[in-house]
Amino acid sequence: MLTTCIRPFFVGVSVCAMLVEAQAARPDSTQALWPTKALKQQLAQLAKPVLADYRPEFRVWSAYPEKSAHYYFPTEEGACYWLLGSAGPGVQDVDMYLRDRDDHTVKEDRDSSPDMKLHFCTERGRAGQFHVELKLKKGQGEVAMQVYKRHAAMKQPLEQPSAAPSEQPKPVANTTSPTPARKPASENKPAPPEPKKDMVKWPPAPRKHA
């Protein structure tokens, strides 16, 4: 692995940046700086289902191993990743093994296929440099992989907790006197006057003679 940044006058800054990135994710000595276009297209097809939530963390890495290739990359605590890999036309079967910073195998893809997919999230206190091994099972040729990381802006927002019962607003008592209910119009009519006791009835009743 190159450890210095070389800037030839006919290439410029781009090669320098490429070599610096190779130091962040450390492959083995079989690294190929320029993977074939066909293999990059295969990886792009594999990545389509995860692009809604994930973004490439490092550029595509490829190698031409005799038996296996090794790739190292840093992880962040609580972050989630997809490891996507594929192989060229000369390889019929390749397995992928993911090992943590203590070199314990945490995930593996051993399907009989040239394509590889692994998903994992780093646990609390377990982040660090992880190790990927691509082991050829059948065939010979180029293998490639790329690390995708869940973007922080794509995480679902946490739901706001509802207010506790003690925090619920209490009903305010009505201190004003209640408005009396209106009576129907038929009940509002004045009562007829009562007849006076000294009124003389007409016609007067006939008198009885002795």
Report on the structure:
This protein is mostly beta strands and 210 residues long. It has a domain at 28-153: Sandwich (Jelly Rolls), CATH 2.60.120. 11% of the residues lie in helices and 30% in strands. Strands 2, 3, 4, 6, 9 and 11 form a 6-stranded antiparallel sheet that branches. The protein has a 5-stranded antiparallel sheet with strand order 1-5-10-7-8. The longest helix is centred in the first third of the chain and has 12 residues, at 13-24. The chain is rod-shaped and about 150 Å long.
Structural class: mainly beta
- Proportion of β residues? 25-35%
**Architecture of one domain, CATH level 2?**
Sandwich
The total of helices stands at 2
Distance between the termini: 156 Å
CATH class category label of one domain: Mainly Beta
Radius of gyration: 44 Å
Provide the descriptors you would attach to this structure in a database record.
single chain, 210 residues, mainly beta, Jelly Rolls, six-stranded antiparallel β-sheet, five-stranded antiparallel β-sheet, 2 helices, disordered N terminus
